[in-house]
Specification:
By secondary structure, the chain is α+β, with helices and mostly antiparallel strands. It has two helices and 13 strands. It folds into two domains: 34 residues; 98 residues, Rieske [2Fe-2S] iron-sulphur domain (Rieske Iron-sulfur Protein, 3-layer Sandwich), CATH 2.102.10.10.
C-alpha cells in the first residue's frame, strides 16, 4: 500500500479495478463506433442509394448487344436474362429454366437460350422453343436509367 498526497491509500486492487474499467470503456466505445452509419461518398450504403430506388444496375446498356442476350445476376443472386431487341429497348425475364430451375445460358448464336441440365431451349423473348420445359421464362421488370439497366 502506498499513501497518496491527499491521504488516500492506493492498493493493487484499486489499480487493477480502475484499469479494467478503463479497458471496458474503450472497448465499448470502439464497438459503438462500428455500429454507426457513414455518410461519406463511395461507401456501399451511399453507392446503393445513388443507384436509385430500383437498386443497383444489372448491367450497362452497352453490355447487352442489340438483337442479343446477356445473363446477369440481380441483387439477390437470381439469374436474369437481359434482351435488347432494338437499340435502347430492353426487356428481361428470369434466367431459371421452367423445367427444373437450372440457370439458362446464351446459346452459340447469341440470340437464344439453352438450359444445360436437360436441353430446354428458349428464343430471345423467353418463349420455350424445345425440350422438357413446360412454359416460357417469366418476365422481369427492368428499365433503362441513363446508360444502365436497372430493376423497375
Amino acid at each position: 500500500m502506498e499513501q497518496q498526497q491527499d491521504g488516500s491509500t492506493l492498493t493493487r486492487r484499486s489499480v487493477v479495478t480502475a484499469g479494467a474499467a478503463a479497458a471496458v470503456g474503450v472497448a465499448g466505445m470502439a464497438g459503438l463506433a462500428g455500429c454507426g452509419g457513414s455518410s461519406s461518398a463511395g461507401t456501399p450504403a451511399s453507392t446503393a442509394a445513388a443507384a436509385g430506388a430500383g437498386g443497383a444496375a444489372l448491367a450497362a446498356l452497352a453490355d447487352v448487344p442489340v438483337g442479343g442476350l446477356k445473363v446477369v445476376k440481380d441483387a439477390s443472386g437470381a439469374p436474369v436474362v437481359l434482351s435488347q431487341p432494338t437499340a435502347g429497348n430492353v426487356v428481361a425475364f428470369s434466367g431459371k429454366c421452367t423445367h427444373k430451375g437450372c440457370t439458362v445460358g446464351v446459346d452459340a448464336t447469341g440470340k437464344g437460350l439453352k438450359c444445360p441440365c436437360h436441353g430446354s431451349t428458349y428464343d430471345g423473348t423467353g418463349k420455350n422453343t424445345g425440350g422438357p420445359a413446360p412454359a416460357a421464362l417469366p418476365a422481369v421488370a427492368v428499365k433503362v436509367d441513363g446508360s444502365n439497366i436497372v430493376p423497375a
